[in-house]
Design a protein that fits this description.
Length: 150
């Protein structure tokens, strides 16, 4: 369905009816209503805007559905969103993505999260080494740490 068709359907039905129909369509497509959509259920405008945004991203993508689900698995794993992760693992399986590819996406996500933690901590450590914690002056000019100017 095109963006214009989606907008027309919302205008014809009204936001509350359109939101209910969207939730039914999502449930048919996914086999369940994702947690975030359930959370937004009572705010039709928010739900409709979220779904329109999601649909626009998917329409503008050249990625196939299996790749989209593998990315979704990896991001869900990296963000530690168990609701999202379980949903996207099921969706990937329903699309025929083999378990070893799902596992590879999870391992890649774990590797990136690990690298992110290490890189962030190392950068912060390096930045803190440059400043004396006692006087908050650059370490090379700090007299407290015995590194005063000669």
């Amino acid at each position: 369905m095109s963006f214009e068709d989606e907008l027309d359907a919302i205008l014809v039905k009204g936001k509350d009816k359109a939101a209910k129909d969207i939730l039914k369509a999502v449930e048919r497509a996914y086999g369940e209503v994702p947690y975030i959509f359930q959370f937004m259920e009572d705010d039709s405008e928010l739900l409709i805007t979220k779904v329109l945004h999601n649909n626009a991203i998917l329409r503008s993508s050249n990625l196939d559905a299996k790749t989209v689900e593998l990315i979704s698995v990896a991001v869900s794993a990296a963000l530690r969103c168990s609701h999202c992760l379980r949903l996207h693992i099921r969706l990937a399986g329903s699309l025929g993505v083999p378990d070893d590819q799902v596992a590879a996406a999870i391992f890649l996500a774990g590797n990136l999260v690990n690298a992110s933690v290490l890189a962030t901590a190392a950068r912060n450590l390096d930045e803190e080494r440059e400043i004396c914690r006692s006087c908050e002056i650059a370490s090379e000019t700090c007299e407290i740490n015995g590194r005063g100017e000669d």
